[in-house]
Every structure is written in structure tokens, then in C-alpha cells.
Write a structure and sequence with these properties.
The chain is built from 5 helices and 3 strands, in the order βααββααα. It is mainly alpha-helical and about 110 residues long. It is elongated, with a radius of gyration of 20 Å. The mean pLDDT is about 95.
């Protein structure tokens, strides 16, 4: 876990006030202990994304939760796909082939995008 002061040293252009505001808005959810926030590496990555959106790209406050929600959904879907791929890999070769054919057929039926 990384303390607030270390976080603001790592994130260019992010003040302690700004960091605490982002936490208050629920854009990142660190662990709180002794009146100070402590961040995991995943929180730091999220804060860097928020920093880029706010400072580098000038994205407004109303859009930030939407962007973060979409990214969270993408990460969730990637996890689900990875889990599904592992389940398919654990199957016998005949079953794997049948699943791949079914996927290919479903893809062909859905047509071009």
C-alpha cells in the first residue's frame, strides 16, 4: 500500500487536495487508516488514468464516471473471457473443436459489423 504523499509524488500535476477530491467523488476507493488514504498499485493505475483524462485531455467531471464505468466493464468482460477460454482449454479436443465451430457459426450468422 502506498500513502497519499507518495501518490502525489508519482502523479505529475496531482495535488493532495485533488487526490482527496477524486476519492470523495468515488472515482477511486483506497483503504483509509488513521485519517490517511492508502492505495494499491491498481488504484495508482486508475489515478493515472484519471489524471490523464482530467489534466492531459481536459475531460469534464460529468464524463469521468462514465469513462471509468466503461473501462471497468471492459476489464470485467476480459476477465470473463479469460475464464471461459480456460474452461474451454480444459475440455477434450473434440469438445474444444465443437465449441470453436459453434463460435465460428455464430459469428458468421451475426454478419459484418
Amino acid at each position: 500500500m502506498i500513502g497519499e504523499r507518495d501518490v502525489i509524488h508519482r502523479l505529475e500535476g496531482v495535488s493532495l487536495t485533488r487526490l482527496r477530491l477524486w476519492v470523495k467523488r468515488g472515482w477511486v476507493m483506497p483503504h483509509e487508516e488513521g485519517g490517511e488514504y492508502h492505495f494499491r498499485e491498481i488504484d495508482i493505475a486508475r489515478l493515472e488514468l484519471i489524471r490523464q483524462l482530467k489534466i492531459d485531455m481536459d475531460v469534464n467531471n460529468e464524463a469521468i464516471p462514465i469513462v471509468l464505468s466503461l473501462i471497468d466493464q471492459i476489464h470485467g468482460l476480459r476477465f470473463e473471457l479469460k475464464t471461459l477460454a480456460q474452461a474451454v482449454e480444459a475440455q477434450h479436443q473434440d469438445i474444444q473443436s465443437a465449441i470453436l465451430r459453434a463460435c465460428s457459426d455464430a459469428h458468421a450468422r451475426s454478419g459484418p459489423r
